[in-house]
Design brief:
By secondary structure, the protein is α+β, with helices and mostly antiparallel strands. The chain is built from 3 helices and 5 strands.
C-alpha cells in the first residue's frame, strides 16, 4: 500500500511576509502605470522591511518595491536577505531588482511571488530561490569584490 505524504505546512513567517507585502502595496504611488506593487523583505536578523513602487513623471527616476524594501534594510545596517515577497498582479521582480537581490541575498534565500486579486479575494503563491532569479548574474563575490 502506498504511503500518503503529509503536505508540509508553510512556515508562519511566510504568511506574515506575504501580508506585509500586500499591505505595502496599498501605499504604492503609481499614477502613470496604475500598477501597484508591494514588497517585504526578511533579513537574517529576522526583521522585516517593506516597500512599494514609487513612480515619477520622469520615468527613469521611478523605483520598484523590491529595491525600496532592500534599500530600507541596508540603510538600517542589514546586509543579507533571508526571504523576499513581491505582491502584485503577475508579480515578478524586474531585471534591475533581480541584480540588487543577487547583491544582498543568500543564493538559497526564498523568493515569494504573490499574484493576488483583492476584489476576488484570491491569490496564487509561487516560490523560488534567489540563485535562480538571474542566470549568469554578475555576482560580486565571484568577481572578488
Amino acid at each position: 500500500m502506498a504511503k500518503k505524504t503529509a503536505k508540509k505546512a508553510a512556515p508562519a513567517w511566510r504568511d506574515k511576509l506575504i501580508e506585509a507585502a500586500k499591505r505595502a502595496q496599498k501605499n504604492a504611488y503609481c499614477p502613470y502605470s496604475r500598477y501597484p506593487v508591494g514588497a517585504a523583505v526578511m533579513m537574517d536578523s529576522g526583521r522585516v522591511y517593506t516597500g512599494c513602487n514609487v513612480e515619477n513623471a520622469s520615468f527613469g527616476l521611478s523605483i520598484c518595491a523590491e529595491r525600496v524594501a532592500i534599500f530600507k534594510a541596508v540603510s538600517q545596517g542589514e546586509k543579507k536577505v533571508k526571504a523576499l515577497c513581491v505582491a502584485a498582479k503577475s508579480a515578478k521582480p524586474c531585471g534591475a531588482c533581480r541584480q540588487v537581490i543577487i547583491e544582498f541575498a543568500h543564493k538559497d534565500a526564498e523568493m515569494i511571488y504573490v499574484d493576488w486579486f483583492p476584489m476576488a479575494k484570491k491569490q496564487k503563491v509561487t516560490l523560488t530561490k534567489a540563485g535562480k532569479l538571474l542566470p549568469q548574474a554578475f555576482d560580486p563575490s565571484e568577481a572578488g569584490l
